[in-house]
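User: For documentation purposes, I need each entry recorded in a consistent format: the amino acid sequence on its own, followed directly by the corresponding structure tokens. There are two entries in this batch. Please keep commentary to a minimum and don't merge the entries.

Assistant: Recorded as requested. Entry 1:
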Amino acid sequence: MTTDEGAVRYAQPAGPFDPAAVTWTPVSPRLAGARCTAIALTLLVPLAATVLVAVLTAPWVWVFPAALVALLLWALWLVPRQVRALQYAERDDDLLIRRGILFRQLVVVPYGRMQYVDVSAGPLARRFGIASVQLHTASVGTNASIDGLPPQEAARLRDRLASRGEARLAGL
């Protein structure tokens, strides 16, 4: 396994999720910070409420704030691992997206099936300097999105995928 410019190349296939001769490009590690911030903000109100209830009532009620803190710590441990597992690869005829640690997923999107490509970034994503690329295909069930790309890379990927999709679609 060698690394060049943030991409990982596998010399031989290691299973259905590691095709041969594919250069995987990881997403930005800033995605982990954005997701952890969103989780922390989501759990902040319930945590404050359960602490208030625990202070005003019986000592056994402290179980609920403790459970929320445990959930937060588990999420802070898990999210960076999930982000490291999110990678994509551009091949001649298709785009590969893989994600997941325990339940792995590999999505293969042929360029000829792409209808349009969206780039989006909400307020939190913009604060962390990341964007998402969403691929829309003829199939409704395709979950082809890449979160956590630097905005320049998202724009480059959007333009490249759109031009490759047009070229493949014109050949039909």
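Entry 2:
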Amino acid sequence: MKIVLLTVGKTEDAYIKDGIEKFVKRLKHYTKLEIVDLPELKNTKALTQEQQKTKEAELILKKLSTTDHVVLLDEKGMEFSSVQFADYIDKKAIGSTQSLVFIIGGPYGFDATVYQRANAQLALSRMTFSHQMVRLFFVEQLYRAFSIIKGEPYHHQ
């Protein structure tokens, strides 16, 4: 199973990039992870929030195939413990999921068309984090999930 993290915008802070790279490198032992950064919109001051979400949706939807299992990282999504998230990943890997795509949207969330395309929504927390921090938290949790699946000592209960 291939896992894709699709994001709107790039990670700018070096310490966050370093953290992401650390976990991406570790994940290579378990799965193929591809991080796709979509370009941030230009001249957004002339656009409403809804117009920005619509334009971001166009970019997001172009990157998806009909066979992708799409999970939006969204504050209104289902909440898992790390063990429950590992179980979710494991079930997708055992099942017929070929490509599992997690999406981090722009600053205003997702357009209705992206919600309609999604198979699920996942909240990393009920707290709000910057989009850059969410990337790091997500790849760490993905690594943790695989270490749980493999019974390795990274995760402690």
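Summary note for entry 2:
The beta strands are 2-8, 32-38, 69-79, 99-104, 120-123.
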